Amino acid sequence: MTVHAVHDAARAAREAQPSLARLHRDTKDAVLLAMADALVARAEEIVSANARDLEAADAAGMAAGLRDRLALDPQRVDAIAQQLRDAAALPDPVGEVMRGSVLRNGLELRQVRVPLGVIGMVYEARPNVTVDAAGLALKSGNAVVLRGGSAALHSNTALIAVLRSVLAEHDLPEDLIVGIDEHGRDGVDALMRARGLIDVLIPRGGAGLIRRVVENSLVPVIETGTGKTHILVDASADLDQAEAIVVNAKTQRVGVCNALETLLVHRDVASEALPRLAAPLAEAGVRFHVDEESAGILTAAGTSAEIVPATEEDWDTEYLGLELAVKVVSDLDDALAHVRAHSTGHTESILTRDLLSQQRFLAEVDSAVVMANASTRFSDGSEFGFGAEIGISTQKLHARGPMGLVEMTTGKWLVVGQGHVRP
Amino acid sequence: MTVHAVHDAARAAREAQPSLARLHRDTKDAVLLAMADALVARAEEIVSANARDLEAADAAGMAAGLRDRLALDPQRVDAIAQQLRDAAALPDPVGEVMRGSVLRNGLELRQVRVPLGVIGMVYEARPNVTVDAAGLALKSGNAVVLRGGSAALHSNTALIAVLRSVLAEHDLPEDLIVGIDEHGRDGVDALMRARGLIDVLIPRGGAGLIRRVVENSLVPVIETGTGKTHILVDASADLDQAEAIVVNAKTQRVGVCNALETLLVHRDVASEALPRLAAPLAEAGVRFHVDEESAGILTAAGTSAEIVPATEEDWDTEYLGLELAVKVVSDLDDALAHVRAHSTGHTESILTRDLLSQQRFLAEVDSAVVMANASTRFSDGSEFGFGAEIGISTQKLHARGPMGLVEMTTGKWLVVGQGHVRP
């Protein structure tokens, strides 16, 4: 039953999408701004739907962090509406001529940017993602099927109802934005089997959800993966900079995929650098999972930091919290080998003043984003100037790294002849 | 056992690949040219290995068309060597700066083109594909795992041995090119499960093989799909041009994915156009699967063509032979609806002198290649000027339409700061 209902919803979105694909930017932006106004105007209704979700969450003993992401008040509804105004201000990727030429035989060739079609989004109980995803999909000409976590069912239903009513007011099919939260986990399974109905599935959430989707989906998936990010403090690093960058990367915001998870320190500077870096991190409450050599150095320096011996598992753990794996490496090759073995391909950074080290690190690390002398926290669509971000892809096909509106499109080849036949 | 052996082979290719990723174009081209020379020099050995495959094929009663694709002689080995020389002459996509800017805060941002990593190719018993795929992979900096059909086992083994010996002569790891033909169908299953070892799997072959890979692979797949291509003869079409284009699209080469499979004719010109188009096609031996209206028109015109009533199945069949589905459409909307329902998203063409019809067809048909007044046979990497083609993708993610060297690469973001931390 769920499969049929979800596939019917996807089919409706698919049938609605061509009318959106051909809208001009002016119209799309007008709809986005009207949606923002409608959300603000109907904030009370949205907040009271959210209260029902919060009640259920409290009864189920939801963790404080998750509850905070779920909770809405009028100020948060304003912020969500602002996401739509921001999307309206972004350039429209659709129609861009990506490549083009006239062939020797006179055929005119153009590759133009077009919407992907129908995007399936699977994410956690975060109502702001519902609106953000719907807005970015609309701006890029895509219909969207949203599966946002049953814990946010009432909030998402209220938000989607507002967005759909604005579509109808603009004589657009409501099924450009479809929610399937009421189908629970079965809805995700049905989406994964909607081959030919959904063009791409984007899971955003924990590693378990993402693995489940990647391994089971018949629909193409863009993996917004985990970030086991590394920073290498090279022998020639400026230690003042290193201190600022490492503290920023680990503590400016925890629980995000571009936060630092493993610190590698070159042996030549380890005895000076490690105690220096550890002090402000320890002060911020970071606990260290250290290899034997780091342990020795930190202990000898009389560190006040909380240190525990690193296990093999630590080199592959995305803590998403105030924990940090720490290891001394003998040289750049040793560091590169460690990164190759343990990186999730998200973001790595080298701190160095040596040109050759920087060149080698940038060239040899095979991650979506590779940095020198900068905090991994910059690995982000907004920071990159995309204006909006649908996630950070850790796969290599189609989209790699921060995904903006451009990554929600594909190309189409247009070939215009004057009676051309192939010799 | 097969899984372990295939995964070991893929792992070896993965370990070898970084040494190739950093080679300059001059070196890669020199290796390709040396491979071409080695194939010519060792043609006798290759042809005699091929003779063993042909013997087995004859014993098994292989169809003539398949046997012809399998057969090698010194001239064909020359032609295969030429493919490598052609690859050497192509520009190197690796290192291209795709996007780049300096952010407001001074961070330098560049997206550069890098190899995908390890490409798995699954294809039929065509020894020329073995060399072509290996050459294009090498040029684009990728290691390749080749599974070319057990009927070509001895031929492929001989060809791969020659290529690997040239790698070794150039101090490159032989495992940049790995063949796994000896593992038969189980080898394909093992490749599909080589997640983390193979970056992308490209199946080339019949619809059954492609569906099996798409539905079962845990590794990302690029689908080189079937081509149920359509031509619409619009009311305003120049019928001289239409005749030339339709004959070219259907008969210039049959059995290829960009050959015409369904002819749609606008009702306003059907009684004139259909008999005119049918005559030269019938002469070329084409059999027509016609809807009722086409049947009436052709019969009334006293056609000599062989016509059979079209079944529902005909609208979805890729004949790959001298067969053609024919249907009269009432107008452009009717044609667009038929294409939407039955196209495989490969290539469609409109023949028209009406600007609005052309605009609407190019905008509204959602296929990889959409043409006006040109034969569908131009939907091809060589014709597009890519110089080489690894296949034609009918999916929307990553690569859509003819795939050349560029489509065998991905992007990597390089971010260079001077001690940047995120505020």
UniProtKB/TrEMBL annotation, chains A, B:
Pathway: Amino-acid biosynthesis; L-proline biosynthesis; L-glutamate 5-semialdehyde from L-glutamate: step 2/2. InterPro entries: Ald_DH/histidinol_DH, Ald_DH_C, Ald_DH_N, Aldehyde_DH_dom, Glu-5-SA_DH, GPR_dom. Residues 3-286 form the Aldehyde dehydrogenase domain. One of its GO terms (cellular component) is cytoplasm. CDD domains: ALDH_F18-19_ProA-GPR (cd07079). Belongs to the gamma-glutamyl phosphate reductase family. This is Gamma-glutamyl phosphate reductase.
